[in-house]
Amino acid sequence: MRTYGMSEKQQDAVWLGFHAGESINSIAKGLLLPSHHVRRYLGQTGGIRPAPLGRSSRQLSAAERDELSRGLVLGESFRVIAERLGRSHTTVSREVARNGGRESYRAHAADQAA
Hints:
rod-shaped, 2 domains, Arc Repressor Mutant, subunit A, mainly alpha
């Protein structure tokens, strides 16, 4: 979603003002923004604020990836690592395969890629 140069605080203020019934011109004037930027920003979603992005609970967390990485360094099997994490061994296997294999898996890089 394009932000038209607005900070997070400005975006929040736009949504608050819009849902409070303020006019687009009033919102823009209060934030010292061009009104066409506010109009286009709101128009992208039809005036409905999108849900905040977040990770699915099905994805491994950074802590789980760290633990996975430690297990790989110790030479543990995917099943042993998965049991400790409370995950399926196929989840661990796919995670490692997706991020460079046993020899080059790095938790931080894998978390950033996710």
